[in-house]
Amino acid sequence: MAVIIDGKKIAQDIRDEVKEQVALLNRQGTEVTLAVVLVGEDPASQVYVRNKEKACEYCGIRSRKILMPESTTQEGLLQVINGLNEDPGVNGILVQLPVPKQINADAVIRAISPLKDVDGFHPQSVGALSIGLPGFLPCTPAGIIQLLHRTGIEISGKECVIVGRSNIVGKPMGMLMLRENATVTIAHSRTKNLAEVCRRADILITAIGQPKFFTADYIKEGAVVIDCGMDRDENGKLCGDVDYSDVFDHTSAITPVPGGVGPMTVAMLMKNCAAAIELQR
After folding, report:
1. Residue range(s) defining the domain that contains residue 39
2. Which one is catalytic: 6, 21, 117, 119?
């Protein structure tokens, strides 16, 4: 019988740990502050920002929301980011993506100080990850490592296949799994014989954004399946990249969608915010 990896519970455990950490910092006279910049009125982005605000409130982290109009110029946004970089009262900076088309997202990511880059997207953060130096870890991949550890799943020595090579999930996920001593393959849209490659995996991590793409044909018997997808099926119901009902009986452990990887991303953001204090010291 497969273990259902409960991302909601594990995320709650992490938020509780961060809450204790922040309370201790408060008693020492240190306040943790996250500044969230939202440009435009994208409905999904507004939901994500509200979720981050709620998590901050629970953990005792002060949240500063900066709303900017859809017409904001790149120069105007970079000026705001520079002000937050120089503000000693701000420990973490997050610009909610996507940004409007007149703004270059890469320039925005590079403008955030690496010491306040709680998303872990800055090239310096990525470089630190790749060579094992201290720095912020990207939230979704770091959350997946926590899911595996806290469910008692062994990573060292295992064959891990990651499908998807984005800068946000696929590439940093590969580096983190290497750090955990897994043998890593990163597959993508140009990979030949994808099902055959996936069937090698002791741990399969999917991040392609295609609803129910991965069926039992892609799964090695007894594999651990981590689904990073957040899609909608033909009935408009939330689902992942993995056909959960088809795959379930072939796995030893699996994340559901929703309730698996998703809750971990915000929890790990809170963990990064608390860790920012020590990094900045």
Report:
1. 30-113
2. 119
